[in-house]
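Issue 218. Parser rejects a valid record. Input:
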Amino acid sequence: MGVGASVLSCCRGEFEESDNTGSEYQPLLGDRERQAVAALVKLFENDTRISFYDGEPLRALTVLARSDVHHLQLSAATAFSEISEYDVRAVPQEALAPVLYLLQSAYADVQQGAASALGNLASVSANKRLIVEMGGLELLVRQMLSPNTEAQINSVGCITNLAADEENKLAIARSGALIPLVRLGRSRDLRVQRNATGALLNMTHQAELREKLVAAGAVAVLVDLLHAKDEDTLYYAITALSNIAVDSDGRDALWSAQAKLVTELLHIMQVHKIKVQAQVALTLRNLASDARFQCAIVQNDGLDALLPLLQSSYTALVVAAAACLRNLSIHADNEDPIICAGLLPELMDLVPQADQPELQCHAIATIRNLAANNGSDKQAFIDAGLFDRFRMAVESTDAQPQVLCELAAAFSVFALNDQLWRPVVELGMCHLLVRLLRCGHTDTEYNACLAIGSLAGKGHPEAAEELMRLWPRGLRDGLARALTLPEYASSNVRPAVLWVLMALLNSRRAAVCKVLRADSQILAAIESIGVSNVPSSSTCTSASWSLLPSFFATKGKSDEMATSPVTADSKTDIDDDGICGFAPEAQRMRSLAAQIVALVQDAD
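Output the parser choked on:
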């Protein structure tokens, strides 16, 4: 029945046959109601494309909505429901008021029509907040508690739309809707279940609300929904679990169901459509932020399930699989299984793909994590084409800054590894480090300095000779830029440059002293650091110094370098106490600069 037919049908109820009381007909409608019906009939006869959200049509529908007559209320509710199917736009309070009034009707069918209309209108951003401001949320929660399935479908669907607005989420949580939503996630009606799961998903976008959902018992329901037959419900449940897994407390709650959760996710990833497969991989990635899940996923044959995704022709699948592997690779016990599963060559092939920078970053970071274990055999990395792929990635003219940063961070790990530092030198990788040192991005330059300093600090002649060969071929200019340009005064690159120079002095003192004595620009810059106060805005932190070797304090052995654990997505946070100025870190940098100057000046 169309909108016009729905409204016009109310005319039939204007009079009914009487029961022999002396009059042929008894009037059932009041004057205002009859006038409203007549106005709508006239409007439809003249123009069926009228707007019902303002003017005379809205006034007429409002009269019907506020009538005590059931079929008039139903006609108004049906009209609003059908109108909002095709005319969905921001509406004024005056248009929402009769719909919210109908939602309080004593008649279930009227309530259903009103909830349907409200759900349609709630798909528009401006309407979402207005509905909540006008008290619609409390009415919807009341509908959600109804035993009537249609009422549940429409009210939960509307709340799902309302929950897409960030400002509404907390109001929904405070309204008491979470526990009913969780309960309706177990509904036997697929439509109710789908809408409830969608609402739960929308509520998982804020950390505070994820905690409330966990407390309301959502984890058990969402895990059970991994058996859902409806594809949308399944996708919503997986994505909600993925969001809950972002938080440490959420992962703790999920760990209680880990046996069922991990095995079911891995099964789904192998049998469902691409969209679902990709979301499962991303969920596993978030779970794998926890060492317990890192082991559990691998122990449940997760690597075998990820390999086909990594080989897929669909970029979304490959990115999701690579992101998951990135976190799995953090755990040292997973290195051998990842290599034995045949994933290393696949990861290497992703490194040069300059048109997919996100994919490159995941692949490079995974390789970096795997290489961080100094005790295992790294020949497989070399055989898989590690250095050829990295050379291609660094030399690409399309390389993005974030990719270069990951490459430099990986080289800093290779330079520390007993089995990989020699190939870095022997295969001519040092010139790539010089290139990264001069790229103009401080994070990348910092990591390049770490790699160069580690190589210099090895104390092996071939490493020092190669670096000195590169001194006039870009290494000198890269170090000089960081020491002299103002923009480097507050970066972590400057202390790393001092480390490089000290490492070179320890390995090739005579040659380095000679070039530094002849380089007034660099020597003057080092002298300036040694006697000046480091600006209080400097971001040189104790976390930065922890990556540098112990011979800052005691000139010494190149094999005494310390490095922080390499993780997939770690970032160094700077707190107030870590800012340089007159802090110990600033004093150490001044002390190191003074040591370098003294060594150069005292050299024969």
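Fixed in the parser; the record now loads. The CA atoms of residues 269 and 277 lie 5 Å apart.
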